[in-house]
Design goal:
about 400 residues; alpha/beta; Rossmann fold; 2 domains; 6-stranded parallel beta sheet; about 45% helix; TIGR04063 family PEP-CTERM/XrtA system glycosyltransferase; Glyco_trans_4-like_N; PEP-CTERM/XrtA_GlycosylTrfase; Glycosyltransferase_grp1
């Protein structure tokens, strides 16, 4: 079986999007499937038309000149479709697998129709809701409604649709999408890459002044919807009840300057540490020195519908997890078992939940074990990737070939 993945961006860029992509492609390769990918013009200019990164072949799409919207998006779709078509000629796939945003699906649909290939469209978040969450869009605006309509249209045209969580599936069903072509491929962790927790990194803790402290951590991107302002606002109350509590923020993003200013003005500024971005190869060192990973996402459509990846990584690292009680977190966390849930948009509730968790050390071992077991059994990519097999095979078998390309059976 030969699968061509169609991506907004990919390795060597590092993001939650590229890490999920890598996990999917590597797990499929381990099953014996032949895999390649095409990255879109938003990857940026590169030196190579095709390059291999981490054992995966990526066909690159060079960006064109900038145009005002919507001409920019239309031009990107045209350029991307031409590049996908060239990759199809070179790789000769049995199936196309496009990953959101919807521009990727629109480009892939052109090629699928031209080449008579089945298309799986995978939605990780609705583009219009992601724009609202990132502060670049407004819910209910003309652009929001147009993007939503395009998404619904693309779902109707694709042969099968994968979503990362049940929240997205239910939303599509409410739009009238056919339920028999939608399946859930949840976020997971590649335990071969990110599976063995490191021992406590004492030198790192000492260098940050955190040895012997109670460490709350966040590792990820600093977007407004992540609720990091609520986490910083919770720190005075937390430190009042737990004087050894410190907060470590690893990463960066659009809210970084505002968050740093907020932390500097806090009465417990000495308990708040910004690390900045670190190489992905160094992330596990920071997990090793954190007691509790906090995910205080704000309540909005994006966070209610979409499950994040970071809490799963924390569970895989046998870290305690505390998260806001929004829909995306409820699909991952069983309160009091695999993690702790607290009211969203409420710094006082966040501080109280963290203080109670820090005070209850007797439960830590069981919670860490439960979180790790959940990832191993239900969110391990070696297991998750099997969800694609029957969908791929059904689409390939039902499509009259009409050509000489070899279509091999799925490896069980």
């Amino acid at each position: 079986m030969r699968i061509l993945h169609i991506l907004d961006h990919a390795l060597p860029l590092q993001s939650g999007y590229t890490f999920r992509t890598r996990a999917i492609l590597k797990a499929q390769m381990q099953r014996g499937w032949q895999v390649a990918a095409v990255s879109g013009p938003r990857q940026g200019a590169g030196d190579h038309d095709v390059e291999t990164v981490d054992g995966i072949d990526f066909h690159r799409t060079q960006p064109g000149r900038a145009w005002p919207s919507p001409l920019q998006e239309l031009n990107e779709i045209r350029r991307f479709a031409r590049r996908i078509d060239r990759a199809v000629q070179a790789f000769k796939p049995d199936l196309l697998h496009a990953h959101s945003p919807v521009l990727d699906a629109l480009a892939a649909l052109r090629v699928a129709k031209k080449r008579g290939l089945p298309l799986v469209y995978e939605i990780r978040a609705f583009w219009e809701d992601a724009a609202v969450g990132n502060g670049t869009g407004t819910e209910g605006s003309a652009v929001y409604r147009a993007t939503r309509a395009l998404e619904t249209w693309a779902v109707g045209k694709a042969d099968a649709v994968a979503v990362i969580c049940d929240g997205l599936r239910q939303d599509l069903l409410a739009r009238g999408a056919a339920g028999d072509k939608i399946f859930v491929s949840p976020n997971g962790v590649d335990l071969n890459l990110f599976g063995a927790p490191l021992d406590f990194d004492a030198p790192l803790a000492l260098s940050l002044g955190l040895h012997g402290k109670e460490v709350i951590g966040f590792i990820g991107s600093f977007y407004d919807y992540e609720g990091l302002d609520d986490l910083i606002a919770a720190m005075p109350a937390l430190v009042a009840s737990r004087p050894a509590a410190h907060l470590v923020l690893v990463g960066g993003g659009p809210m970084e300057a505002a968050l740093r200013a907020q932390a500097a003005a806090s009465p417990v500024a000495a308990h708040i540490h910004f690390i900045g971005r670190v190489p992905h190869t160094e992330v596990e060192r920071y997990y090793s020195i954190v007691d509790v990973l906090a995910y205080p996402r704000k309540r909005m459509r994006l966070t209610d519908l979409v499950t994040p990846l970071k809490p799963l990584e924390a569970m895989a690292q046998r870290r305690l997890v505390a998260a806001s009680d929004v829909g995306g977190h409820r699909e991952l966390i069983r309160d009091g078992d695999t993690g702790t849930l607290f009211a969203p948009d409420d710094p006082a509730a966040l501080a109280a939940a963290l203080a109670a968790l820090l005070a209850d050390r007797g439960s830590w071992a069981a919670r860490r074990a439960a979180g790790r077991a959940f990832v191993e059994s239900e969110r391990n990519w070696a297991v998750n990737v099997a969800r694609y097999a029957p969908v791929y095979q059904k689409l390939i078998d039902s499509r009259a070939s009409g050509d000489s390309w070899h279509r091999s059976p799925v490896n069980a």
